[in-house]
Design a protein that fits this description.
Layout: E1 6-11, H1 15-24, E2 30-35, H2 38-47, E3 52-56, E4 58-59, E5 62-63, H3 64-73, E6 80-84, H4 89-97, E7 102-105, H5 110-125
Parallel strand pairs: 1-2, 1-3, 3-6, 6-7
Antiparallel strand pairs: 4-5
Helix pairs in contact: 2-3
Amino acid sequence: MNKDLHRILIVEDNEEHVALDREYLPENEFYVDSAPDKHTALQKLKNKSYDLVVLDYQLPDGNGIELLIEMKSLGIDVPVILLTNYDEPDLSFEARKLGAVDYWVKGYQYFTQLRERILESIDSSDL
């Protein structure tokens, strides 16, 4: 793997969504890995290094907040963008309190803005 690529883990149980994410993240800029659930994501985070995690809130074995809590308790320090289908201010606050760098409601602009939002989140976490 090219060391200049941004290493992204997408935690999402919808395979079509992951495939679309990959289409919008150029292979010459990003190495994209994926996990369909919390358990798989934790295993990958323990064994690999990522520059950013794109984390869906609703997962088959829990939710994104639970994963953020587990990451924090294990000392896994990687920027996280939490995605959800609904704008919930309390959820946004909780996610940021647990270290998420961004909270994003999925919408029609999601895929077209994905690359830029990821790069902004990586850059802001490097400061």
